[in-house]
Amino acid sequence: RIGLLNNLRAGRSDKQVWRLLQLLRGYPEVLHVETDRSSAVPEALSDLSRQEVDLLVVNGGDGTLAHALTEIIEHGVFEGRIPMFAVLRGGRTNTTALDIGSHRDPVRSMEALILAARHGRIEERIRRRDVLRVACDGQVRCGMFFGGGVIYRGIELVHSSFPQGRVRGAFGSTAVIGALMSKLLVGGGEGIVAPDKAQVQLDGEGIAPGEFTLFMASTLPRLFSRLRPFWGEGSGGVRFTALASDARHRARTVPGLLFGRPGRHATEENGYLSRNCKRVELRFDCGFTIDGEQCEPRAGRTVSISAEHNVRFVRT
Q1: 93: Cβ–Cβ under 8 A, 6 or more apart, which residues?
Q2: Which has the closest alpha carbon to 110: 37, 25, 222, 9?
Q3: Among 220, 216, 219, which residue's Cα sits nearest to residue 243?
């Protein structure tokens, strides 16, 4: 049974919302709830659970998906079970939807999903993905991407540089990444690209404490703008990458590694760290983000990142 969680504040146009609601009038078997604030999400999900939804469609981008994953996996609002997920490209950033292969138009995606369910063809659309579990400051958040340091500050720059709306999403992030790239290539830096002191532990192995320009983790093979900044090996579900502040051969290495071509200089000895882990533990003072949700800097915090749940996503 299909249920739709429709975030009305996800950056879409009113016209698109209207088109989606018009579509659903022709498919009364599809349950749907609309939310306009994050505090309403738990009750909306509980309502869909009570109606025995087993395929949850999320229309609202990466942040809405992360919120739904947290409520279902950590807080058990679906009575302890984890449904299948489908993600429409309805937010400012739609990294997971892009990775799964969802169509650009959320309305066309929704209709294709409904027809696939009617004809018993959901199974062929399933793409399994691990989900990050990030524990910090006494809270647990689930999501698909974690970024610290310069990534956190970069998102803050996007929010201050671009008006609220879709331009804050992939377009704004890509523009800021382009600007940051030029700064990262020369090393050092201050302000937004200033390095952060951190202690890093990967599957119990301590990495020498030092300063890092950035660190990020995800369970997805690619991010927005076709970025593929994870090239390490290992059997764990957490893809982790960090760039030391004194990394060498930046001009030759940084551009390639962002797109999955790290080159021969991208070694740990040269300051480029990338591994697939079961657990990452970080101790730092800087801020971080989980799928766009910002967590402000705090001295001496410890962040534990794992990937303990594998979820069935359905391509739309």
Answers
A1: 61, 62, 63, 169, 170, 173, 224, 291, 292
A2: 25
A3: 216
The string of DSSP codes covering 260-294 is: T---TT-SGGGTEEEEEESEEEEEESS-EEETTEE
CA distance 296 to 285: 9
CA–CA distance, 221 with 238 (Å, rounded to integer) = 10
AA identity, residue 196: D
C-alpha separations of 310 from 9, 133, 191, 219, 314 in Å: 28, 11, 38, 10, 13
- Tokens for 84? 């299948």
Ranges of H-type helices in 72-169: 95-100, 106-118, 150-161
Q: Are 132 and 311 in contact (CB under 8 A)?
A: no
Q: Give the rounded distance of the alpha carbon of 81 from its chain centre.
A: 22
* Inter-residue contact 301 to 88 (CB < 8 Å): no
Q: What CA–CA distances, in Å, run from 126 to 35, 79, 87, 95, 121? A: 26, 23, 12, 17, 10
Distance CA 240, CA 230 (A): 7
* Matching residue, tokens 């992939």: 170
Q: What is the pLDDT of residues 111-147, one digit of tens each?
A: 999 999 999 999 999 999 999 999 998 999 999 999 9
- What residues have CB less than 8 Å from 264, skipping those under 6 apart? none
- Which tens digit of pLDDT belongs to each residue from 269-307? 999 999 999 999 999 999 999 998 899 999 999 999 999
